[in-house]
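To whoever is on call:

I kicked off a structure prediction for a single chain this morning and the downstream step that reads the tokens threw a length-mismatch warning. I double-checked the sequence; it's 200 residues and nothing unusual in it as far as I can see. Pasting both halves so you can look.
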Amino acid sequence: MNDQARTAVLNWKQAVDTAADTSVPAATPTQKPVVTRKLTPEEIAIARSVFGDALDTSQIQLTDSGVPFAGDNAVAFPNLVNFPPGTLSQPGNHFHGWLVHELTHIWQYQRGHTVPQLAVDAAGGDYDYGGPEGLVAAHDAGKRFGQFTFEEQGNILRHYWERTQRGEDVSAYKFYVDSVRYGTSDGVYPEPAPPPGRPV
């Protein structure tokens, strides 16, 4: 493990310890009050439109208390997504695509992955799966959803949902989204690449 990954794991460990404290800090005069809540019916419907029944939403909570090392980024823990301060008190659905990305991490936790694994992956910063063209090429090469990085997986599902909201073509995403919905993702990253020509 390199220094960057080690630092990421230590930061996430501190954040997990902080997240375990369920007390809500008082807002200062210049801050909005911290919001901590379960998913709304609309957010559950969004999750189902992406994950089907593959994601257990019953225990998931959202908060916007922020995580000191994360800046303007969200951090997902098992059954908890922590957004930057003020995110949840803003009106409208401005963060729903972001939410889908973070719910992907909870889906990963629900399949046995750990905070240190996701921290190391996030430290690597590999979010770019190549867009629709990259997905077509990946599918043609026999690449499974589980062979994308954790962050790429989050962006694949986020961009799928965002494209559905804009009425755009999602055919390049369908194989991968279905593999999540129906539990055929062949494991989740990290996983060795299949041999060329492996059937899908």
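Update from on-call: the warning came from a stale cache, not from the record. Cleared it. Sanity check on the structure: Residues 3-181 form one domain.
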